[in-house]
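batch_manifest entry 22 of 60
target: Restriction endonuclease subunit S
source organism: Bifidobacterium adolescentis
requested by: lab member K.T.
priority: normal
notes from requester: please return tokens only, no post-processing; we will run our own comparison against the previous entry in this batch. if the run fails, retry once and flag.
--- input ---
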Amino acid sequence: MAPAWEQRKLGEELGFLRNNTLSRAELSDSEGTVFDIHYGDVLIKYGSVLDAEKADVPKIANDAVANRQTCDCLQDGDVIIADTAEDSAVGKCTELCNSAGKKVFSGLHTMPLRPMRKYASGYLGHYLNSPAFHDQLLPLMQGIKVISVSRSAMEDMTMSVPSVAEQASIGAFFDRLDSLITLHQRKYDGCANPLFLERRISCRKPSHQNRCSATTTPSG
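--- output ---
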């Protein structure tokens, strides 16, 4: 039988790091050497786990500006929470992985956190985005047009903490699920391509000039 999951306060498990307040205009997709995780990307672009080797993470365009920042450099296992949004997506997070050899900062409207003890890769990112955790935020959200959540509110939220072995199993399961969803999304996007649809329609026309096999796919 697996051991019971512990119930802990987030503030007992994760320590808050320092972020910066650089705007999107100060970031670049091509210039600079220091990566910066913007809250808008946490909300829209990144999943529960951010693979720094594969993801498109912008950089601080000006290295001199980057060097003046007093925020903490992130490492694998750190969690970045978006503390501001236009809706109840506020509180969405991503867990950093494969960041070795890279200088990564947590940017505007984010809360970077670091585990105080060992956690299996992927567990925190998936768990902190789960309804079981995120729904605790709903009565704590502040604002009307722009919604935010405070550090003190986050610190008091309750976390479920299984054994590290169970954490690893949970993280691996959701990583596989995310990969499967991404694969099917790509297939769907390909089928929705106008050229693909045009070829399919053309294949169905009752004309000798439009005969094609059922496996016809768009070129390129």
